Amino acid sequence: MTSLLATLVLAQAAAGAPPSDAAADFTWTPIIDAFAQYAARWPTDAEASNDFSVPRVHLGAEAGWRGASARVLLEGVYSTQGGALVGVAGDSVVVRLREAWGGYRWRFLEAKLGMVPTLLVPELEQAWRFRELTPTGLESNRLMAPADLGGLLLGHLPADYGWVGVGVTNGEGYASRELNPGKNFEVTAAVHPLPGGRFWPVTLVASAMFGSTGVVESATQRYGGAALWSGRKLGVSLSGFGVNGYQGDATKVGYQLEGGVRGELFEHLLLAARAQYFRRDVSRDDWLLEVLGAVGVRVAFLETFVSVVRTVLAAETRAALPGTDGTELRLVLRVRWPPLQP
Amino acid sequence: MWRWFAAGLSVVAMGCSAPALDARTGELVTALVRADELVIRARPELAAGKFQRMASAPFDFYRGTLPVFRLDWELGRTSRSGFATNTLPVLGLADPQPENFGILVASDRTAGFEPNDFDSADRVPYLFDLRRLLGGLALGVRLQSPGTSPAAIARDAARAYAESMQAFAAGAQPERIESPGGSLILDDLFRRSARDLASRAELTQLTVVEGETRRFRRGVIDPAEPTETLEDAPSFVVDAVPDALARLGEDPAWTVLDVVRQFGSGVASWPRVRFLVLVRGPTDAVDDDVILELKELAESAVAGWYRPALPADDTPARVESALRRSWARPDADPRWFTTEWLGFPFQVRTESEAHKNLRVSRWVGARATPVELSKLAVVLGQLLARIHGRSGAATVASVAAQVGRDIDVFADEQANFAEVHSQASLDDYARFQAALEQLGPTLGLRVDPRELPSPTLQAFYGDPP
User: Fold this and answer.
1) Nearest CA in chain B to A317
2) Considering only CB atoms, which chain A residues are within 8 Å of B13?
3) Given a cut of 60, is residue A12 above it in pLDDT?
């Protein structure tokens, strides 16, 4: 750790990159991110169904003044199907905090405190960009949360080489209450090995998380890496992560592999494909495979897709996770402000 | 090197006060706490009462472990089967353990053996329901009849289930179980039910007549159950009770005479709000007064499977549709219905000593022989099949085809499961007792006093004695 910090200090001294003048002024940006979808499902172990839904509504704002920054992001979610939330009827939408943090950047160091985005998941999502189609498997399989209560410290590498970050969080994610005094530690580095040219989008990510979950502090560890191409017209991602401890079973060992590609043709036409493989337990034939293909259009702050998702489970896993194995056809609309930046 | 580093950082992550409990205990505790987290935070004394009750006896523990059963299912421990594929979900009970069955007296005063707990009724894999039943059955056999093979009893139940599902798929009509059918255990139930129906035993046990009016007793009713008490209900509850009974109509028979809060009833639903309501009955005579139970309902412990399809729009509708569907006749208890009351989902049902629950503790003597336990197992297997048989023709056909691939192998597989699972339940019980001792009454979840509900809501939840 000492050598890492020394390297950062020396590198920053060489780069000598103070905050730009533009960043010295107060800025603020409203944030709107909402998905609406129609989905038709054909599970292999249940009757077909179809429905309209709004899987996500995020509203918020981000402000900055010189090195200081803050963001508040509210998320609207359906309450459970009735009874669990006192005084809230079953189909009500309740609002909760998705992010709420303040931060400060001094030279190459940036710190955030509050309900903060975690380090790894947002980085992977930034390469994929189309969260409305499917979240990263780390999130959908509940291996890592995209946000949590805690603090982050990032060291930005000079010359746009990327960043190295350390996070300390409660560990139960933004959607659950903390059940134990233990904390999660996450160390992530996202490096652009070829900055400053046409190969800047190449990003190498390495991450490790050590933590615990539940009242009895069941140990959880995640570790792995990703190779990304995060270009404007083209995005490619390959990642692999080891999983120690899953669903409160500290002895369970598994892994997840994920690969995706997205492209934009003729300025507006969007194509995307992704495959996720999650081996829940290496000692058994227990796995899920999700394959997605989508075609869509982007116009200003709107994105719309038609996607097909096929989820295949091992026989044993299919019995354990009823209703998961099947095919889904989705028509998705996303409203995103500010619009997606190149 | 890497392993040592990871292990060291994990220790730091878990803090210095990490309890020394094994991994299985951790799963067990976390599953129970997550399932009841809101209850623990809002009414910690009541949640503690539930955990204490679960720690008091192995079968009481089993009754409270549906969240653990679900976790084990999702982790592939209890869901592994050669008969799990290509079936549609059944409209099941989710928790058909043996003590969730009993006698109900219908509007024509005839008795039937029926399911009587629908708190978690939902769409489930048929094997989930069946294995929850078989696990409880085998555990009961282990506890009450040590010389009897739990696997053999479970095998009989599984076989009866499979054959009945095939019969329903072929068009057999569901039948009400109106007599013991040669079972000493059921005979015990029917006989005591008839006796208490004739004597209106609940009026004797729970009420007194003062002047010309009947009212509830207060305090401990049965010295053998000191935590089960009747207490005064808050005035705002008493005033609102007629709203809860609105579906019974404007009949003067439903004039409310007295209301008490009931503590200490049930196991899984121990912390839920319960009131007993004494209503006047058809005449002014005190002998035909009727007692109703109002019990708070909660979300199903298996909610979320087969998302986004839901079994009903809300909790009251889910429970009521399940009971009407599951019973052989819709008026198995003519006063059982669900409603939303004071902003909470509730069910109303007749509180009667004639409504005898199947109790594992009564499987003793001549009722605990292998032959008698087998007879009961067959009836329970058939009854569960009858309930699942209301899930629609395609579903019934899919289950029948699956179990019909080889009924002997199917029954053997379930018997093996029940034997292993019932022993695992006993092991879990010991772990749970140790965890409760070590982690404290709320199983280690620290309650923040600032999060306790308002005084009015606390008055509604009640303060257990």
Assistant:
1) B76
2) 171, 182-185, 210-212, 219
3) no
Whether A21 is covered by a domain: the verdict is no
| DSSP conformation letters of A36-59 | EEEEEEEETTS--EEEEEEEEEEE
Q: How far apart are the first and last CA of chain A?
A: 34
β-pairing, A184-191 vs A162-169, is antiparallel
The structural domain count of chain A equals: 1
On whether residue A116 sits in a domain, the answer given is yes
Chain A's closest residue to B316, CA to CA, is A82
- pLDDT, tens only, B242-295: 999 999 887 777 899 999 999 999 999 999 999 999 999 888 888 899 999 999
B20 touches chain A (CB under 8 A): no
Residue B3 pLDDT level (bands cut at 50, 70, 90) = low
Residue B81 three-state SS? coil
Is A45 contained in some domain?
Answer: yes
Domain coverage including residue A178 = 27-337
Residue whose entry in the numeric block shows the structure tokens 């019932």: B422
CB-count exposure of residue B220 (10 Å: 0-12, 13-18, 19+): middle
Looking up residue A311, the CATH number of its domain turns out to be 2.40.160.10
Q: What angle do CA B389, B395, B401 make, to 5 degrees?
A: 95
How many residues belong to chain B?
465
Average pLDDT for A19-41:
84
Beta carbons within 8 Å of B5's beta carbon, 6+ residues apart: none
What's the rounded mean pLDDT across residues A93-117?
Answer: 94
Mean pLDDT confidence for A281-294: 96
pLDDT, averaged across chain B: 92
**pLDDT score recorded for residue A81:** 44
Q: Do B12 and A185 touch (CB under 8 A)?
A: yes
Residue type, A243: V
Question: How many Cβ atoms from other residues are within 10 Å of residue A55's Cβ?
Answer: 16
Measured between beta carbons, the chain A residues lying within 8 angstroms of B84 are 315, 318-319
**Which pLDDT belongs to residue A217?**
82
Interchain CB contact of B297 with A (< 8 Å): yes
What is the Cα B169 distance to its own chain's centre? 28
Which residue in the set A215, A251, A319 is minimally distant from B125, CB to CB? A319
Report whether pLDDT(A84) > 70: no
**pLDDT of B1 strictly over 70:** no
Which of B272, B296, B306 is the mutation pick for testing A, counting most A CBs within 10 A? B306
Contact B316, B345 (CB under 8 A): yes
- Tell whether A58 is covered by a domain: yes
Kindly state whether B12 is in contact with chain A, defined as any CB-CB distance less than 8 angstroms.
yes
Token readout for B14 is 């878990």
State how far the Cα of B145 lies from the Cα of A333, in Å rounded to an integer.
Answer: 61
A234 vs chain B: nearest CA distance in angstroms? 33
SS3 of residue B191 by DSSP:
helix
Query: Is the separation of the CB atoms in A25 and A316 below 8 Å?
Result: no
Instruction: Kindly determine whether residue A284 and residue B76, on different chains, have CB atoms separated by under 8 Å.
Output: yes
ipTM for the predicted complex comes to: 0.84
B74 — contact with chain A (CB < 8 Å)? yes
Give pLDDT, residue A13. Answer: 44
pLDDT above 80 (res A7): no
Does B315 sit within 8 Å of A216, measured CB to CB? no
State the best of B1, B2, B9, B454 to mutate against chain A, taking most chain A CBs within 10 Å.
B9
Q: Tell me how far apart the alpha carbons of residues A235 and A241 are, in angstroms, rounded to a whole number.
A: 20
